[in-house]
Structure formats: C-alpha cells, structure tokens
C-alpha cells in the first residue's frame, strides 16, 4: 500500500445454508487468503454468515444466536490482519430483525450498517423477515456472545475513515440499495466515501449479468468512487433460484476485476485513491447538499506496507487497447475534428482552406479531416489548397508522399520551394547557413507559415494548423511558425493517437493508392525535416531529440488529467513500460518533459482555436489556464529526489 494505491477484494465463500459454524470457517479461510495477497479491504456477500436463502429459518432464535457467535469469531480472527472486513448477517435489535453488514478491523467491530431498502417483489420476500434500517445512525448496546457489551454505531449513515490513509473512506450499502432510484451510496459518496462496499445476494437470470455490470460501473462513474460488489453464490439454496456469485470491482466507470459467475472465490483490484481524489477535486459540481443525513465518522488504522501493483497500467492511455473500441474512438474523433472545421467554415462563409503538406503524420491527418469536412458541406475538394514547401531538410520520400496525398484527396496542389527565400533571409539577418542551430531551423518554419498565410489571403481562405497535442505540451513548435494558424484541427490529438487515426483511415478507405501512401507515411520517422538529410535519408528524428512520444503522452495524461506527482508518474511508467525502457531512460525523459512543459507554456497561452476531442487539452480558453511564468521548482525538487534514488 503506497502512492495511495490500495488492494481491495470481493470474496464469495462456498457456504451451507443455515450453518454459521461451517460458513465462518470458509469466511476466515478467505480472509487469510485475501490478506496473504495484500488486500486491505475485503467484502463478503449479504447474509453470508447464515446464507441468504434461509427463509423462515431466520425466525429461529438458534440461528440468530449462532450468527452472533460467528460474528465474534470473525472479529477475533481479524486481529492483526491489517484489513477492513465487511461481512453480512441477520441482526436482532428490539425484537426486530435487520439485514446488516458488520464492518470489522483488527479485532474490533467498527459498525453495523443496515440495509435500507427491503425488496418484497418477484422472487424476493425479505419483508417477511427483515425491517428496513433507520435513515440515519445511532449508537446501540451490542451484546457479544460472551455477554460483553459494546457501544456500536448502527444504521445506514456512517463512514469509516482511515487515519493513516486520509483518502481511504469506506461506506456500505446492501444489495437492493444499489438498484433503487436514490441509492444510499449517493449520500455516502457526497459525504466523502471513496470506496463503496456492497454486500449482495443477486440471483442469476438471463441478461442480468450485463445489467448488473453496467449498474456497478455506472455507479462508480457517477459517484467518482471505487465500488466493491460481492454477491452470494455457490452453496445458496437452489430450490427456486441460482445465485450469481458475480463479483465486481469498479473504479470511476472502469472494471478492474470481475469474477466468472456461478461459483465462488475471490477477486482483487488495486484502487487508485489519487485518481478519485483528483477527479472529485476537478469537478466543481461534486458536492454535498443540505438534505443529506448527518454521518457518523468511525476511524480505523491500517499499517502502510509496500504494494506490488497487480493493476493493469495502459502504456497508451489515449488509445483504446482493443480494436473494436479503437475503431469507434477513431471514427468519433474524426467526426469531432471535421465538425469543428465545418462550423468555422460556415460561420465565416469560407470555401477555401490552405494547409502545408509535409508528408508527415500531422499534416496528413489534418488533410484527411479537411476532406471529411468538405464532403459534409458539399464543397469541392479543389478548394483545399495543399502546399508543399521543400527546403534544406526535405527528402524525396516525404515530398513524393505529400504530392501523392494531395492528388488522391483531390485537392489543389502547389509547390513553393523556400530555399532561396530562407537563404536571402539568412543574409538579411547575418546568419551563417553553416551554423545549423535554432535560427537555421526556425527560419524555415516561419517562412513556411508566412507562405501559407499569404496564399490564404490570395485565395480568400484560412490556414489550417497541423500541430498536435503532444507537440504543444512539449513546446515542440516554432513560435509564430507552425505554432500559428486560423484553426488547428489537431490541437487536442496526442501523437500516439494521430498514428492510429491515420491507420484507421488507411484501413477503411477504398482507394488503394491512397491507402498505400498513408501506410508509408506511418512508416516514416517523425521529423521536422529542418536539417539536411544524410544520403537522402531523414537525419533529424524528433524522438531522438525530445524523447519517445509514447512516454511523453503517458506523462502528460497523468500530470494534466489527474495532477499526479512526479514520483507516482515515474512509478506508473516503470510498471507500464516494464521491459521496454530502463528506469534511467524513463527518468531522463520525465525530467525533460517537466522542464519543457513549464518553460513552453507561453506558446500554449496564445494558441489558435481548435476542437477538444478527449479528456486532455491545452487550450488557454479551456483545460489549461496556466501562467506562462509559473515556477516549476517544487516539481524539480521531487525529480531530484527521484534521481538520487536511482544512483
């Protein structure tokens, strides 16, 4: 347990109906198993000490008394386990029977959470045996099996706060509570609970598994929480029903773990508490209201221990890792980009656009988006003015690809060789062209932008920008050069996703010659082509200079989307890129990322308009309102501490 990750478990024991002695042994075995795996939160099913399907046996005093004895055994067994355990049982108070979750930690009963909504419809008849729990909470005298009396919180409005991990706040609801229009978990989350536990007994009928999953995923997303759902399964009576044993662990809409239904066992998930904290902090609308009940805060402590992550950390967080979702995402993004441009062209009454076509990925994507927008508007694609501007670093490969692309798209292609203009500029400013420094490079980028702007004036059109999100995050753009346009269609598309968008277009287009050139663009090294080629081959490779874009996109995602600290981003990157990059390489480019991210904000502070397509963007009018002169000192101090640890 570190970096605010915590392992949770949903456990379904194989039980015997109305046999608390046997069931307690199975529960304790699973507690031991889960603790051996490092679980700090363990959730068992509803009424699992007795079994959910006892029927009128719940009216038998012997069963209720034995269940209470079993609870004491589980409390004793929990001592020294470093875990919070939620286990279900029938509980008698003032001659009424309640369906409760006993929340236990380190040999102590923390509270008894009551079920609020008692179903008595279709196959359920809990109202025959159980009373609905109180809306709020009270403190009751709990009589242990040995006659001892403890004061224990009882009711539904309670939360369990970890004193050693402030972000870990637990709360419970029981089965039907989740399925009603206004679940208790809503109030729990608004009161500060970050991990919701549901003790359930959900039967298995056709179609219910998918609905149950969508319900748990949706609730975890709506409440920005982790949701641990443990359901009764094997061993429950099959007289009229089969119980699902369908366990789920979800975090903010994503399923971390899911059991195979109709069995028993334990599933585990490593919950990222920082992610939940960040999301809630970012959402100004996530807040409590005055109608919420008063909550009882119950403290507990867990010992912090190292946790080796078992959680999947996607090395490409901007790109869906299954093909079906990736195709859907690509189509959606293309449409967003194109519709953004459609609105701009309609608003200004413009049918002419200009784009610099280099034969690289970014300008290729921009051209494909422009073509889609023109088709939507019913405009002639000849109104797309593609301009290739060869100079000192242009290779035959990229030049030929640019020309072929323009031809196959049906745009109007023109060529402006800028070598002479740039050479004259060098003479004007007194720059030696043999000195291939930033002046040498940026003079070419700014000349190209000037050409595009002036052609746009000439044809009464606008310049479409090609720069992507990754370049803007790193400041890998020439100020008032490729940094500038009248509308930037790629402004919030990260480089790792640009590649998939172009590949998607190539895979789905019917023009084989166009597809072939798109595949060749994909195989071409990313380069600004500002330095002369070597033996006709690209000499200047962007990723050799600023680092791999897959790393920088990863860093950007976790820095801007969740506000993670450098140490946590480094840990996640090591986990995600294990076997791909050595630790020192990851650190080198992480350090580069932070330095450039802070130093280059001035370029992002005056970006052209462009559509947001995903959860991360750097528009100064939207997602990143950051001072251009903000200090990076505290981030660099933490990076220095990381560096010392690598020695």
Question: What is the topological layout?
Answer:
Layout: E1 5-12, H1 20-36, E2 41-43, H2 61-77, E3 84-93, E4 96-105, E5 108-114, E6 137-143, E7 149-155, E8 158-162, E9 169-174, H3 176-179, H4 184-190, E10 195-200, H5 208-222, E11 226-231, E12 248-251, E13 254-258, E14 265-272, H6 273-282, E15 296-300, H7 323-348, E16 353-356, H8 361-377, E17 384-388, H9 396-409, E18 412-415, H10 419-429, H11 438-459, E19 462-465, H12 469-474, E20 487-488, H13 495-508, H14 512-523, H15 542-545, H16 549-562, H17 566-576, H18 583-599, H19 601-604, H20 633-646
Parallel strand pairs: 1-2, 2-3, 5-7, 8-15, 9-10, 10-11, 16-17, 16-19, 17-18, 19-20
Antiparallel strand pairs: 1-14, 3-4, 4-5, 6-7, 8-9, 11-12, 12-13
Helix pairs in contact: 1-2, 7-8, 7-13, 8-9, 8-13, 9-14, 10-11, 13-14, 16-17, 16-18, 17-18, 18-20
């Amino acid at each position: 347990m570190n970096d605010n990750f915590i392992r949770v478990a949903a456990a379904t024991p194989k039980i015997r109906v109305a046999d608390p002695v046997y069931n307690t042994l199975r529960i304790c075995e699973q507690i031991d198993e889960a603790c051996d795996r490092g679980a700090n939160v363990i959730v068992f099913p509803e009424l699992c000490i007795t079994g959910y399907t006892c029927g009128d046996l719940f009216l038998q005093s012997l069963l209720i008394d034995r269940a209470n004895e079993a609870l004491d055994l589980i409390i004793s067994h929990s001592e020294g386990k470093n875990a919070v355990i939620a286990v279900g049982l029938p509980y008698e108070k003032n001659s009424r029977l309640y369906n409760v979750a006993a929340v236990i930690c380190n040999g102590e009963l923390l509270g008894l959470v009551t079920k609020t909504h008692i179903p008595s419809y279709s196959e359920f008849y809990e109202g025959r045996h159980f009373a609905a729990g109180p809306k709020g909470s009270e403190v009751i005298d709990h009589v242990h099996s040995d006659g001892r009396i403890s004061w224990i919180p009882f009711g539904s409005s309670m939360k369990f706060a970890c004193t050693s991990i402030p972000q870990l706040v637990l709360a419970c609801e029981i089965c039907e509570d989740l399925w009603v229009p206004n679940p208790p978990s809503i109030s729990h989350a608004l009161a500060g609970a970050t991990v919701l536990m549901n003790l359930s007994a959900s039967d298995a009928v056709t179609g219910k598994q998918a609905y149950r999953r969508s319900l748990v995923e949706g609730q975890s997303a709506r409440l920005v929480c982790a949701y641990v759902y443990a359901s009764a399964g094997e061993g429950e009576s099959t007289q009229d029903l089969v119980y699902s044993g369908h366990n789920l662990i979800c975090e903010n809409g994503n399923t971390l773990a899911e059991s195979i239904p109709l069995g028993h066992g334990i599933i585990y998930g490593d919950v990222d508490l920082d992610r939940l904290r960040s999301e809630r902090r970012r959402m100004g609308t996530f807040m409590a209201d005055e109608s919420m009940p008063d909550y009882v805060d119950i403290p507990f402590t867990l010992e912090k221990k190292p946790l080796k992550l078992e959680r999947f950390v996607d090395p490409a967080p901007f790109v869906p890792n299954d093909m079906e979702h990736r195709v859907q995402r690509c189509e959606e993004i293309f449409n967003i980009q194109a519709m953004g441009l459609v609105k701009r062209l309609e608003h200004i009454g413009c049918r002419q656009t200009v784009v610099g076509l280099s034969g690289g990925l970014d300008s290729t994507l921009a051209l494909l988006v422009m073509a889609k927008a023109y088709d939507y508007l019913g405009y002639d694609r000849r109104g797309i003015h593609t301009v290739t501007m060869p100079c000192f670093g242009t290779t035959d490969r990229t030049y030929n690809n640019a020309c072929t692309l323009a031809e196959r798209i049906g745009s109007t292609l023109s060529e402006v060789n800028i070598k002479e203009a740039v050479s004259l500029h060098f003479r004007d400013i007194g720059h030696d062209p043999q000195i291939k420094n930033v002046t040498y490079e940026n003079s070419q980028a700014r000349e190209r932008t000037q050409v595009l702007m002036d052609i746009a004036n000439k044809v009464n059109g606008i310049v479409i920008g090609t720069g992507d999100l990754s370049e803007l995050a790193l400041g890998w753009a020439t100020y008032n050069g490729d940094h500038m346009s009248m509308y930037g269609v790629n402004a919030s598309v990260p480089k790792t996703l640009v590649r998939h968008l172009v590949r998607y277009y190539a895979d789905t287009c019917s023009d084989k010659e166009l597809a072939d050139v798109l595949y060749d663009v994909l195989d071409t090294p990313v380069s600004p082509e500002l330095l002369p080629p070597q033996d006709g081959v690209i000499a200047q490779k962007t990723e050799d200079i600023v680092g791999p874009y897959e790393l920088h996109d990863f860093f950007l995602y976790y820095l801007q989307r969740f506000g993670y600290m450098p140490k946590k981003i480094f840990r996640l990157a090591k986990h995600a890129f294990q076997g791909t990059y050595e630790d020192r390489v990851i650190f080198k480019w992480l350090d580069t990322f932070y330095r450039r991210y802070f130093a280059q904000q001035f370029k992002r502070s005056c970006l052209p308009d462009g559509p947001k397509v995903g959860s991360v963007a750097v528009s100064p009018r939207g997602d990143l309102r950051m001072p251009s002169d903000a200090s990076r000192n505290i981030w660099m101090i933490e990076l220095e501490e990381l560096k010392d640890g690598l020695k």
